[in-house]
Design a protein that fits this description.
The complex is a heterodimer of chains A (221) and B (214).
Chain A: E1 4-13, E2 18-24, E3 37-43, E4 47-52, E5 61-64, H1 65-68, E6 73-83, E7 95-101, E8 106-109, E9 112-113, E10 121-125, E11 129-136, E12 146-149, E13 152-155, E14 164-168, H2 171-177, E15 179-183, E16 186-195, E17 202-209, E18 215-220
Antiparallel strand pairs in A: 1-6, 1-9, 2-5, 2-7, 3-4, 3-6, 7-8, 10-16, 11-14, 11-17, 12-13, 12-16, 15-16, 17-18
Chain B: E1 2-9, E2 15-22, E3 28-36, E4 41-49, E5 55-58, E6 68-69, E7 72-81, E8 85-93, E9 96-100, E10 104-106, E11 111-118, E12 122-130, E13 136-143, E14 150-155, E15 160-164, H1 165-168, H2 170-173, E16 178-186, E17 192-201, E18 207-212
Antiparallel strand pairs in B: 1-7, 2-5, 2-8, 3-4, 3-7, 6-7, 8-9, 10-17, 11-16, 12-15, 12-17, 13-14, 13-16, 17-18
The chains are: A mainly beta (221), B mainly beta (214).
Amino acid sequence: MDRRITWVGFGMESALTKTAVHFFGCSTGVSAPYPAQVILTRFQKEPQAVALDGVRLNQPGGIMLESAFPGEVALCGVALELSTNQTRESLAESQCFFELQSRVDVVRYRPTKVGAAPRNGVLIRDSKISSSVIVINPTEQSQSCTWKCGEQAITLDPLAPWEVKEIQIQDDWYAKVGKEVTGPRGVIYSMILSVSDPSSLIGYIIHRDSAVRKPVSVRPL
Amino acid sequence: MFEKRFWFASDPFGESLLIISPETENSTNYEIEFKDSEGRVINNVKATVEPRSTVCFELDPFLGGLGFESGIRHGTLTVRGDHESGILVRLGSKDQISMLGELSVIRGENSGFFPLRLSSERSHLLVAVNLSENPVSIKGRLFIDSRSPDASFDIPPFASRCLSIESAFKEVLESHAGLGHLRFLVKGRSNVGFLVIESLVSMDEEESTTVWGS
């Protein structure tokens, strides 16, 4: 019975980009607005946590990260823990979105549930988009993991406790293991990235506009 | 064997490109089925991709007969393959690009939600795809401030619809700006795929469109 669910993703807080988190606690077959608890944590080597008041099942809610944690941070980890004291209710169907907001655009993604099996992702580079990888260590221990690109294994340097970093995909990765396709939009390089040994690290592929580096899409690994 | 479903759009809204990267050391066979917004099959393509290759399809050549719905030429495609694969739809719309993954599916009698940034400069379309052979009814409830008005939408079998949030909740949204949440309940046993299109018309009339799903 899932009476406690934690999602982990990342956020950005700057003059140009703000982060919002949205959650919807729900339980199959139950429509009553039972009270629920949400603990929001922001971290970049040091975790800070706040509890959100007034959360109820079956009622969506959301908060700007800066209203819970004032101050800029270029890249941070964000964890949202949802729980209920209703002993017969499972929260397994609950949902969560994180948003990276700029004045014009918004990039929304579903953060990863802690304990979910890692997925493979597609890295892309073309004339307008390039991909990088954001790796999050939501634990109190240093963590490393190994990725696989094609047949090439890539071992990450260990991440310190609560560390979050963005790893740029070097051009020679594409040359070594990526595939090149000349399509209607010019040359597109792509490769599959897979996590080959399970760890507590959580990863995302972030697709950015090549020219101005703004995020355009985020896909969980 | 796997089956994945995606939403796509075509001119004049945007241009869609399908990117497929198999994850195995074997050749992978694919069947790609295109449906229009009424759920009619408009094309069917078979392809074999060599190990560790990538293929990119521009979708427009396969979309003959694709009509307009809510002012947009759109539909769904289903990719079936014999080995697991990474698949994305790259949707380019004016200067904006979005990478769309598989449709986020809500099972019958379950609820989903989307956050909305509401203002007079923004508009939102809820894209709903009925993945079943029965008509489906979706009950939407908008949460803004202390209000929570309802609206209902009906989707024919296998059809996709672009539903204007601003039109459906016109009375409460005309004067509202800020954060809102749309909760929706899928009635019956049908499964429904969802995503939201957000468009912004700024003061200088430049338009920006962000498409996002799961």
